[in-house]
Hints:
The complex is a heterodimer of chains A (about 250) and B (about 210). With about 250 residues, chain A is mainly alpha-helical. Chain A has helices at about 1-20, 35-60, 65-80, 80-90, 95-110, 115-120, 130-135, 155-165, 180-200, 200-210, 215-230, 240; strands spanning about 145, 150-155. In chain A, strands 1-2 form a two-stranded antiparallel sheet. In chain A, helix 2 (about 35-60) packs across helix 9 (about 180-200). With about 210 residues, chain B is an alpha+beta fold.
Amino acid sequence: xxxxxxxxxxxxxxxxxxxxxxxxxxxxxxxxxxxxxxxxxxxxxxxxxxxxxxxxxxxxxxxxxxxxxxxxxxxxxxxxxxxxxxxxxxxxxxxxxxxxxxxxxxxxxxxxxxxxxxxxxxxxxxxxxxxxxxxxxxxxxxxxxxxxxxxxxxxxxxxxxxxxxxxxxxxxxxxxxxxxxxxxxxxxxxxxxxxxxxxxxxxxxxxxxxxxxxxxxxxxxxxxxxxxxxxxxxxxxxxxxxxxxxxxxxxxx
Amino acid sequence: xxxxxxxxxxxxxxxxxxxxxxxxxxxxxxxxxxxxxxxxxxxxxxxxxxxxxxxxxxxxxxxxxxxxxxxxxxxxxxxxxxxxxxxxxxxxxxxxxxxxxxxxxxxxxxxxxxxxxxxxxxxxxxxxxxxxxxxxxxxxxxxxxxxxxxxxxxxxxxxxxxxxxxxxxxxxxxxxxxxxxxxxxxxxxxxxxxxxxxxxxxxxxxxxxxx
Lengths: 253, 211
């Protein structure tokens, strides 16, 4: 493997010497485990094609859009405690207050979260997770990874995924008389969440698969989108924003 | 003297800092005028679909340097393609790019382009920041990269700000084209076949949405 990488690096180096210096690519994502990641990407595509997509199509057929919206709002509301804890851990009191307010309003006025009333009242949903919290704390993402069933990620976000369930009160709840009920609820949430999300993303997944290199497209989109989420949707500083744009005339006549 | 020097240096430093953000009024008005005309061509109720596409394409040909964009999208392969391969690729790319831009801009149902400001990367390379106003109130933050050559302005890339994620359409396209070309040993026919397939998919989607 090492020899292969060295040979590739040498070949790249020679190619670069033979032509002009490699142009800057502001969205380039280091991918040292690309062979493994591509295999996992192909595996996930197979799972999507033969299991998730048909199941989501069936789910879409039997549920009207209104019902799917209620399911989406309900599941999003259940995530509020995890978002709230991460808002606090990131020292974002304003966003924490928004999450608390949204949870209180949607759980009561929104009938157990079935309606996102708070959004209608001008307090929009935002997402947070422990992977983002680690990033805010200065932890490096590590290399790009694609994991089976999880999809694009990195070591930092994987740790985040492992920690977030600890912030979820539903995972700590034991139901008297039915000790397995909490596990069943957790599985139900995941299955329903996966189906609902797959239906919402159907168009985007189809467009991604039509791209010349869906693997490369997803790697770039995931990484830049994740960075934007970590910045809470704020743009980079204007002075840095355009610094790395590639030269346009390099390969012109 | 010393007293005078310090404020002068401070002013000079401020001016130097302000330089990259200085709005090039000509570039800004170029984007304002042309982008508005392009949007107007999409919103003109007097035109049927074919007339609209023809008018839109004519504006885009003036507004953008499609040849430069096409070559940028294949990077080093622009020198490796044969002249015939390059000519065919540029033709296919132009048709696809125009279809993409028409589809994207049409999807915004934008009414007006409002220039916010601009940033000069160099004397001949500027970014113009605009907002496309929409009827539904969901205004779009769109940035135009404009190059000046022989005193002529031309747009070479467009960026969309999606929730703080600035996506340059040309750069994203280039990353994928290069990956495909690297994988296929620089095959021009593999790339042009893929671009033609993408254009067909785009057109069939547009038709199914009733555009």
